[in-house]
Amino acid sequence: MALREHLRELRNRLIKSAVATVLGAVAGFMVYEPFMQYITEPLKRLAETGRTATINYSSVGGSFNTMVEVSVVLGLILASPVWLYQLWAFITPALHRNERRYAMGFLAAAIPLFLGGCAIAVTALPAAVYALTAFTPEGGSNFVEAGVYLRFFLQLILTFGIACVVPVLLVGLNMLGLLSGRTVLKSWRVVVVIVLVVAAMAAPGPDPVTMLYLAIPLLVLFFVAVGLCLWLDRHRARKQAKQAAATGLSADRGTSAEQLRSLGSTAAGE
């Protein structure tokens, strides 16, 4: 395709993504009230412990601004299948068959892990709110600005979701031959320390509960990724040994033209 045709296709896919996002934002506007009730429920439960915490709108238009922000975010989430497909459809023609297979595998693993991380964040939200408000001195009250609380909730979800996708990157690097499973396994002690540090820094607050909610799934996924990398290494080694045996290649002698043609035919057949 010519450059103008690429730009035209990009424009069409951006328009489709924007329309889907606008429709998703309309749906987000319709579920704004139950959504806000759901995410503010942990603050309401604090009344049972004798503490006071409530959502505060600092300006006349603060509630409207929060509603628009929530609607847009929910629209992006609801429209994600559409704009992800549009992105995939735009870049697919430029990929080889093996690259498409790797990309599909990455998406198939990354999307459930991202959603699982978001679900963990939603589960951790009450514990995070309770732990963070526990530092309020006796007799004090928490009047949380609505926009700040919303950004706190979104940060929690995005942090957990993206962190759960990182192990998939390790497997992807291994599939590309850039990182071996043994190399990752040898540094597992360092990785455990790094995961704990990153979890402590990424968690939106100093409480250890939220940090553990993030660190434990990451460590589990890391060791699962290491196991997959080791398995892929063994599978790749057996495949290379089988190809070498089939073509008669050896490192201590030259490769004939017939062997090179046979090796090329084998690679083309795959």
Q: How is this structure best summarized?
A:
The chain is mainly alpha-helical.
3D structure, described in words:
- The chain crosses the membrane at residues 14-32, 70-91, 103-132, 152-176, 188-205, 211-232.
- The chain has 11 helices and 2 strands, in the order αααβαααβααααα.
- It has 270 residues and is mainly alpha-helical.
- The chain has one domain.
- α6 runs antiparallel to α7.
- The longest helix is centred in the last third of the chain and has 40 residues, at 208-247.
- 20% of the residues are buried.
- The model has no long low-confidence stretch (mean pLDDT 75).
Question: Mean pLDDT, as a whole number?
Answer: 75
Strand residue percentage: under 5%
Number of helices: 11
Write down the Rg: 25 Å
What are its keywords?
two-stranded parallel ribbon; mainly alpha; 11 helices; 270 residues; 78% helix; 2 strands
Write the layout of secondary structure elements.
Blueprint: H1 3-30, H2 32-39, H3 41-45, E1 52-56, H4 62-78, H5 80-91, H6 97-133, E2 141-145, H7 146-175, H8 181-186, H9 188-202, H10 208-247, H11 257-269
Parallel strand pairs: 1-2
Helix pairs in contact: 1-4, 1-5, 6-7, 6-10, 7-10, 9-10
